[in-house]
């Protein structure tokens, strides 16, 4: 087995997330039941499932927030049991709530999150200029987050979640409550991030978004019921949209 | 370390940008101490009374004059008979009726015993107690004067000077309790709200996924409120000392150390509450109902512990403020040194350790 300079295993087949029979039980209830999958570097991986299917529990295990009951998993080459600190340094995370501080300004939010990920003052300054420019919010840099439109917050939250150049970014229903145009723009940002080498692990309830993913898995009752490219899945279930695939499986 | 500094700066932004937080933090202690100091005093003034004088002799007239010239009482009505008393009270204007028995002065000089009856409106028990106390005190004064005049001086001095209850004494009793309540409020309530707010906004998730350790998050949350609690303690002590002249008899450094200990206990209570509640409302209810109420009622702040039923006395042992108030009263009023408050200090240290361990355990299981 090979090890990289940062101590992580070098994945020969470039599986940046790898899970085998990963299981989480809460008492008698099995939230995640022996799921196995892998995600390649730079891939956009859709993690779908109805509410209560076990998605959140699975993500929490992969982010190092929750210890699995059994099974194996590595994230960015690090073990989810023992190396959670290393995992946390190499991942970004954005939730449906966008997770920005409403009573802080744009600049202050960038400073804060840059700071907790250990960026130097110089790096934070450069990142801030870059983000303000690319998001075209130079004028709003000293405005409080709560005064910004939802779409801006969402794009800023995503940019901040990858401010430390993580290997993987976990997006937990990142487009909730956002209009279709902004969602489209948001997915463009996701594509750009993926093109720059960031692996994107995304959960969503919008089946049109599932079409944008390279591969998707659909969870139902704690197990992965299907895993393939959107095209193959539609073919397999002989339907035209991911929506229909989802309804067939999740039912 | 840099990470941690950023976290602290962020916390202070939260505090100083929220008007309501600032109001609770700084407005309330000042308002409370001024209220207790000035408004809630044990002094009475211009209380309306009625007199039923069945003797109408020199002595009763002198006593009435003395009462009315004291500044505490105003004569509302002269009653004619006992039947008038009840209707007069029902009007709700007068608070006391003074009844002199017939032949008051004869009884006083011949038998040495004259009876006067004081009837007070006890719908406000504390006020009634005070009024009766003031009246009796004036009557006693008069009695002494008579005794004196019979021996030496024939003239009767009607000037009243009362040393019954200097009006600001109550603030000495309130300051220790107030310190406990304010420090608890700032530490426990504000910390638990601030942590649950992060949960509600979804930012806690992001913090937990970040390289920050849970321990650092908690300490970062706690330190600003620790500092603010200190500011508050100084404001309260300063007001007590410079506005009301309450001295700190004992060692100030000991006082500060003991206050720090109490703040640590309160902060761990706040953390415990925040691990048990998911939103700000729950945290607030738990802090106010579960902490403030016992602190006010069971700590000896308002009601003396010795007068409580035995069960409540036992219960009061688990209220941290009970121990803290004993400590602070000892240091401020009696000038006690450490050996006198050792037991209380160790109880608080024990509570702090227990609560910190419990919160860490709860915080971890909560993450799962």
**H and E string of chain B:** HHEHEHEHEHHHHHHHHH
Q: What's the Cα radius of gyration of chain B? A: 28 Å
Structural class by helix and strand composition of chain A? alpha/beta
Number of helices of chain B: 14
The biggest beta sheet of chain A is recorded as:
6 strands, mixed
Low-confidence segments of chain A, ≥5 residues, pLDDT <50? 1-12
N- and C-termini, Cα separation of chain B: 27 Å
How is the largest sheet of chain B built, in terms of strand order? 2-1-3-4
Share of helix of chain B, binned? 55-70%
Looking at how many chains there are and whether they match, the oligomeric state comes to: heterodimer
> What class do helices, strands and sheet pairing of chain B give?
alpha/beta
Approximately what portion of the residues of chain B adopt beta-strand conformation? 5-15%
Features:
heterodimer, A: 251 residues, alpha/beta, six-stranded mixed beta sheet, four-stranded antiparallel beta sheet, 9 helices, 10 strands, 35% helix, 26% strand, B: 368 residues, four-stranded mixed beta sheet, 14 helices, 4 strands, 68% helix, elongated
Describe the structure in your own words:
- The complex is a heterodimer of chains A (251) and B (368).
- Chain A is α/β, with parallel strands linked by helices and 251 residues long.
- Chain A has nine helices and ten strands.
- Chain A has helices at 55-62, 84-90, 106-116, 121-134, 150-161, 180-195, 207-210, 230-236, 242-250; strands spanning 15-26, 29-40, 44-49, 70-75, 78-79, 91-95, 168-172, 199-203, 215-220, 223-228.
- Chain A is globular and about 50 Å long.
- The N and C termini of chain A lie far apart (42 Å).
- The model of chain A is unreliable at 1-12 (pLDDT under 50).
- With 368 residues, chain B is an alpha/beta fold.
- Chain B has 14 helices and four strands.
- Chain B has helices spanning 2-17, 19-39, 58-68, 85-90, 104-111, 125-151, 169-201, 203-209, 214-242, 252-276, 280-298, 310-315, 320-334, 342-367; strands spanning 47-53, 73-79, 96-100, 116-120.
- Chain B has a four-stranded mixed β-sheet.
- The longest helix of chain B has 33 residues, at 169-201.
- Chain B is elongated, with a radius of gyration of 28 Å.
- In chain B, 35% of the residues are buried.
- Mean pLDDT of chain B is 82; it is low at 152-168.
- The A-B interface holds A 63-67, 85, 88-89, 91, 93-104, 108, 111-113, 115-118, 161, 170 and B 2-3, 5-7, 9-10, 13-14, 17-18, 201-203, 205-212, 367-368.
